[in-house]
Amino acid sequence: MAIGDVKTAQGLNELNTFLADKSYVSGYTPTQADVQVFEQVGKAPSASLPHALRWYNQIASYNANERKAWGAGASPLTAGGKPTTAPAAKPADDDDDDVDLFGSGDEEEDAEAARIREERVQAYAAKKSKKPALIAKSSILLDVKPWDDETDMKEMENLVRAIEMDGLLWGASKLVPVGYGINKLQIMCVIEDDKVSVDILTEKIQENEDYVQSVDIAAFNKI
Questions:
Q1: Over the stretch 91-133, which tens digit does the pLDDT of each residue have?
Q2: pTM of the model as a whole
Q3: Distance CA 139, CA 141 (A)
Q4: What value does the CA radius of gyration of the chain take, rounded to a whole number of Å?
Q5: What is the pLDDT of residues 60-86, one digit of tens each?
Q6: Under a CB-based contact definition with an 8 Å cutoff, are residues 188 and 171 in contact?
Q7: Residue 50 phi, psi (nearest 5)
Q8: Which residues of 156-183 are buried (b: 16+ CB within 10 A; e: fewer)?
Q9: 204 pLDDT above the threshold of 90
Q10: Residue 161 near residue 204 (C-beta atoms within 8 A)
């Protein structure tokens, strides 16, 4: 499916439809195609476009350095002559190729050449050690169920979103009918695996016992 100009309402609707059954715009992991579309969209879509909003919040949860590390991906954008493939980004200031680890010159290198080579090796190692590590994250879709049809679902959502943890980002949500006039709250979140325990998160949600009957994990994806 080709997507038009995502700066227009029609293009955003096409993007929302495109992402209805996808986590990313190209493949099963984030790529430069996601970065390209993310930058074209520019700001979070409205709640009336839940799939596009869920995807946007997920991409926004990564910092610029993490996004630069993603590989190339096929872009669905076609309007205005956009490329069909988004190339992998070159890391900023990555001039490793300019580092001559072994120097050059005569076979019998003198003490000065050895010193210069050692300095280059140390500078190269120091530069490599400063490169940011990719942070392991997960995308989770939670089903939060109320006690009955008289539960104030808006207040229940407010209580859920009020939960703050380092490495936790709340995303899009919606109410899903379960029968007998009862709705469940379905809400998306992105967590940093090393910082947030899913068990602790669900326990915190269930502490709102006047509103919450139970919490289930509807979907769990590593990203």
A1: 445 455 454 554 444 555 577 777 787 888 888 777 766 666 6
A2: 0.45
A3: 7
A4: 24
A5: 988 988 888 888 878 777 644 344 455
A6: yes
A7: -60, -35
A8: bbebbeeeeeeebbbbbbeeeeeeeebb
A9: yes
A10: no
